[in-house]
Amino acid sequence: MKKIKVIKSSGVAEEYSPVKLKRSLERSGLKPPESEEIVSTIESELNKEEESTEHIFKKTRDVVFKKSHLAGFKYSLKGAILEMGPTGFIFERFIAKALSYEGYQTKTDTLFKGFCVDHEVDIHAKSTNQILLGECKFHNVPNIKNDLKTALYVKARMDDLKKNPDNHFDDFFLISNTAFSREAITYAKCSGLKLIGFNYPEDKNLYQMIEENFLYPITSLVRLKRSDINTLLDKGIILCKELCEHPQELHHLGYSYLETENILSVFKHISKENCS
DSSP characters for 35-91? Predict the structure, then answer.
């Protein structure tokens, strides 16, 4: 096919890569022949010399859902996290809930005294033998990377907290729903700052945490109205798990028992849970 420039949300253009698209499809659980078929379908519909990443994502998502609701659910995960915005408030609580499923007792927005100034820390997570602190950086668009400046800022906060002998913690994390620049990763490895992004590090990244414990956000539920998602988020219901355990919340919003079952069916199939 002819060369197509993909325009990212940042405005930066790069050459369209069928390999990247195929890889993302296979991560959603599709087999290579199915992924190749979808890539061919998408390529046949890309008629312009320039296409936005958002346009390609929506086209691909629609095709994937027609092929498999389960794969569509997984393929849409990164976009579902973006839809937690526009602020980072919900993302912080999402991370706290994710860590609680890893065995931690968690708090959000905790005030700590540093050596020089006070700091409000987004995540405070405590297990029987470990204490973690975390700074969350949420972005509304997928291609914004957390750069060296962000890593330096978070490391400075970590250092000020460490200098106060009353503070006890094992690790300080910078946690984001997007990626990190190469410089930020190099600096973090050298300085002792820990990073968690959607696909970073290779082990125990955000995607894996979600997949291992079925921590899909309710923004993954494509049959749920956006206004109703907002209502549920305001109530503190962030995970499909929580909604599955409290289906009456959907009944209160006017959904019938059959509609509720349809909304939660894909999640129940993935997680093998029969919560309601």
Answer: HHHHHHHHHHH--SSEEEHHHHHHHHHHHHHHH-HHHHHHHTHHHHHHTT-SSSHHH
**CA 77 → CA 108, 119, 137, 236, 255, distances in Å?**
23, 32, 18, 19, 24
Cα distance between residue 258 and residue 260, in whole Å: 5
Look-up of token digits 């890309």:
46
- Give 90-137 pLDDT, tens digit per residue: 999 999 999 998 899 999 999 999 999 999 999 999 999 999 999 999
89-213: CATH topology is Trna Endonuclease; Chain: A, domain 1 (3.40.1350)
pTM of the model: 0.87
Q: What residues of the chain score a pLDDT lower than 70? A: 1-2, 9-10, 47-48, 273-276
CATH architecture of 214-271: Orthogonal Bundle (1.10)
**What angle do helix axes 18-27 and 53-67 make, rounded to 10 degrees?**
40
